[in-house]
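Researcher: Predict the fold of Divergent 4Fe-4S mono-cluster domain-containing protein.
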Amino acid sequence: MNNELIEKGYRRYVGNKIDVYFNTNICQHSGNCVRGNHAIFNLSRKPWIVPDNATLEEVKRVIDTCPSGALQYQEK
Ligand code: SF4
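Model: Structure tokens for Divergent 4Fe-4S mono-cluster domain-containing protein follow.
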């Protein structure tokens, strides 16, 4: 768990190889995440982020397209 991100208001979405962190207050709603991979990021599902629905590399690739920093990840 990345306590620094939690203290900044991020929520954690747990995966086997990688955790994804999201901060709704920072999100600019560009939609890059959901367009980038709908299996990982799906706003009509709870939880809306499922890191295990793609490979580790794919999770990192999509998160690297987030323009705001609202999405972060931590490999295990
Ligand atoms: S890519 Fe980042 S800024 Fe854009 S909608 Fe997703 S989380 Fe928000």
